[in-house]
Structures are given as structure tokens and as C-alpha cells.
Design a protein that fits this description.
globular, 14 strands, alpha+beta, 3-stranded antiparallel beta sheet
Length: about 400
């Protein structure tokens, strides 16, 4: 079967040989004739329709996913006589977690990571305590994993990190540590016991081009000002890399050892406030594009970025005759409140400055995806499978208990 571009939706049409009864029970299958998919025929598929005829539940969806790399992302049902149609999009259910171009000197890959709170709620609303706690968690995670932090910005409902990681497993372990501890601390502070994040973090690899790296750093630095919340990134009251990068001094945070505190309480000890709080220092590593410069030159480059961001924010406020919201208003927001989220565009698969480099990175990603899908299909079929290096293989299959 020939697969089209993974980013392009594919239309699949089902033509049942018989019309489904008006009161067909949910789950009852009816045989279907030949089905067209990208110019190829897949005979013998089945469909199931509920009593209202408004929902399509194809039991062959697993077959499609396992054998052709297709993933059902949404259903659009049109019943026209004997014909039914369902929208199927090609691609993996989630973006592939792999790092394809490690730096040859140190074996690290550069990525931009984004994580968002559930329903856009202000669960990460800035405060002095949360700023210190966030920096402490980042510093603690940095000491435990093979990662480097180049920049960060934490807004009320999402945050961005620019990281270098040794491989996808180190990145996943670091993000599990950071997101888990941050959700527990902020959730405890804001009395939020439900799900904290909207989904898994999104990591997008950045090319080795200096223009791409500096462009992403400027994007992260602009947070707070580009949304019209403050006049300058330096005015943002939450955790932000602008001041440490500009001053050349590492940020200082706190780490609350909840495990030691719990053990002390269970042993009947009286625990005073701050008894298990330690100071943590968060060093920032210069981007590979700035690593050849001295510390003064690096700070000058950051100063120029911040100046451009402030000028652009002021110009935008002048055009719209508006003013920044201000730190005092931000600090007074209800953490359980949700923002009016704008319609977001699809995130790019890679960050690159030139079309040629972007195409090469996308080609490498496609090769990886094809190799992963082929190995995953063999693994699900019970055959020996060789997954590509730097990936997370398919999870183990469940073996049911057979009576007798």
C-alpha cells in the first residue's frame, strides 16, 4: 500500500453491500465491499452503526493503524443511500518522541519544549513562591538528568523551555520529573486536585543553524511582553530567563523535600515551617550559537533581543491605543479561571531557518517514522522487530488468562 504525506488527511469511503437496519444494535457488524484508500483496495472491511445511524465505529480501525500507519483522528459520517464515509488522517497518534541530530561535540540535541495547563487555567499564575519553587524544581531536575537548560519562560497557563538533551529518554525522564513536581506543588498551593496538564509536553527539535536557535530564544524571551501582559520581559513576575541571561548570574530557587517532611511527620516529629526547604541554583548553558562568544558578548546579544522586544511591544500598544495589563493584575488572577484561548495553529514538526535544512530534518523524521511503523507492525504480529535507535518501542501486549 502506498502511503501519502503523513500530514495530509486521507478520505476513506465505505460502501456497504447491504443497508444497516434502522434499529441495528450497537456493535452489530455488517459486511462491506471493497474500500478505496489512496488508490489501493482493502476488501473485507466491516462497519458497525448504532440505532440512530449517527455514529461510525469501524472495528477495522486497529487493523488500519497496525498495518498501514493510519490513525483515526475524527469521524465525519455522511449517510447517502448505501454509502458511508469516515475521515481518517495519516500519522502516528502522538508526535514521535525522538531526537535526530545530536551535537557532534557533546552528543546533545537542541529542543524547544512546551507544556500547557488543562483548559488553559491559570494554575501557573506567577507569585514569588511559585517562581522560587519552579526554579528550584528545574535546578533539581538538571542535577539528576543529562540535560542543559538554555532558556525558559513560565506564563500563567503554559511554559516554554529550550533544552539540550542527550537522547529522548533523558528528555522524557527530565520532563516527567519537572512536570510531576510542578503539578504537585502548584496544585497543593491552589487547591487543585484534578488533572493539571492538557496533555503530554510537546518537544520540537531545533536545527544547528544559528538563526534558528536565536529565533527560538527570542521567542521564549518575548513571552509576557508579546501578549501585552507587561511592557518588558524583565517585568514578568514569574520564572523567566530574561534577567539571568541579561545579568549573567544564575537564578536561585528553593526545593521543598516533601519526602523527608512526610517521614518526619510519620515519626511524630514536630515539623517547623521551612525545615525541609533548601536553596537551589539554576545555571543556564549558552546556546550552541552563542557558545563561541565571551560572557559580555552573550549578554549584549540578549540585551539587543530584549530591546527589540520592548520596542515592538510599545509600537503594538501605540497602534491599538492600549497599555500592558501589569504585574499587579496578573498576580491577582484566580488560578482556577480559564483564559479565552485563541485558535492555535498546528505546531511545526521542526524549527529551522532555511527550507533546505527543514526538508532534510523532515526527511530524517519520515524515515524514522516508517522504520518505527514497520517494526511496530512486526512486533504486534508476534514477529521479531528491530526498532530504530533512540525511540520508545511499543508497549508490551496484554496476555489474557485462559480458563483451564
Amino acid at each position: 500500500m502506498r502511503l501519502a504525506d503523513p500530514a495530509r488527511p486521507v478520505r476513506v469511503k465505505y460502501h456497504p453491500m447491504v443497508r444497516a437496519p434502522a434499529r441495528a444494535p450497537l456493535g452489530r457488524c455488517h459486511s462491506a465491499g471493497a474500500t478505496q484508500l489512496s488508490g489501493s483496495r482493502l476488501p473485507g472491511l466491516r462497519i458497525a452503526i448504532n440505532c440512530a445511524g449517527l455514529r461510525l465505529l469501524p472495528p477495522e480501525a486497529r487493523w488500519l493503524t497496525a498495518n498501514s500507519g493510519l490513525a483515526i483522528s475524527g469521524v465525519a459520517l455522511q449517510q447517502r443511500g448505501f454509502g458511508l464515509s469516515v475521515s481518517v488522517s495519516q500519522g502516528m497518534p502522538r508526535p514521535p518522541r525522538t531526537l535526530l541530530q545530536p551535537e557532534p561535540e557533546e552528543g546533545y540535541s537542541l529542543v524547544e519544549v512546551t507544556s500547557r495547563t488543562i483548559q488553559g487555567r491559570f494554575l501557573l499564575r506567577p507569585s514569588r513562591w511559585l517562581r522560587l519553587t519552579t526554579i528550584g524544581i528545574l535546578a533539581r531536575g538538571l542535577s539528576r538528568h543529562r540535560v542543559q537548560i538554555h532558556g525558559y519562560s513560565f506564563l500563567s497557563n503554559h511554559y516554554h523551555l529550550i533544552l539540550s538533551a542527550a537522547d529522548a529518554r533523558e528528555l522524557a525522564s527530565f520532563m516527567e520529573y519537572v512536570n510531576g513536581n510542578l503539578a504537585r506543588e502548584a496544585g497543593r498551593r491552589h487547591d487543585w486536585r484534578a488533572r493539571f496538564y492538557a496533555g503530554r509536553y510537546r518537544a520540537i527539535e531545533i536545527s544547528r543553524e544559528p538563526a534558528a536557535q536565536l529565533g527560538r530564544l527570542r521567542y521564549v524571551l518575548a513571552h509576557g511582553a508579546k501578549e501585552g501582559l507587561v511592557a518588558s520581559p524583565l517585568d514578568w513576575p514569574g520564572a523567566h530567563c530574561a534577567r539571568p541571561l541579561l545579568d549573567g548570574r544564575p537564578a536561585v530557587g528553593i526545593w521543598h523535600d516533601r519526602t523527608a517532611e512526610y517521614r518526619a511527620r510519620t515519626r511524630g516529629r514536630r515539623v517547623s515551617s521551612g525545615a525541609f526547604v533548601t536553596e537551589e541554583v539554576l545555571p543556564l548553558t549558552p546556546l550552541p550559537a552563542l557558545a563561541h562568544l565571551g560572557s559580555k558578548e552573550q549578554r549584549a546579544a540578549v540585551r539587543e533581543m530584549i530591546h527589540d522586544i520592548e520596542h515592538e511591544a510599545a509600537r503594538r500598544h501605540a497602534i491599538h491605543r492600549s497599555s500592558p495589563l501589569g504585574a499587579s493584575v496578573i498576580l491577582s488572577l484566580d488560578p482556577h479561571q480559564s483564559a479565552d484561548l485563541p485558535e492555535r495553529k498546528a505546531a511545526p514538526k521542526v524549527h529551522a531557518a532555511s527550507a533546505a535544512v527543514r526538508d532534510r530534518m523532515l526527511d530524517a523524521l519520515r524515515i524514522f517514522v516508517r522504520a518505527y511503523r514497520a517494526a511496530s507492525a512486526r512486533d504486534r504480529a508476534g514477529l521479531e522487530a528491530r526498532f530504530p535507535a533512540g525511540c520508545f518501542p511499543s508497549p508490551p501486549q496484554f496476555v489474557p488468562i485462559r480458563p483451564g
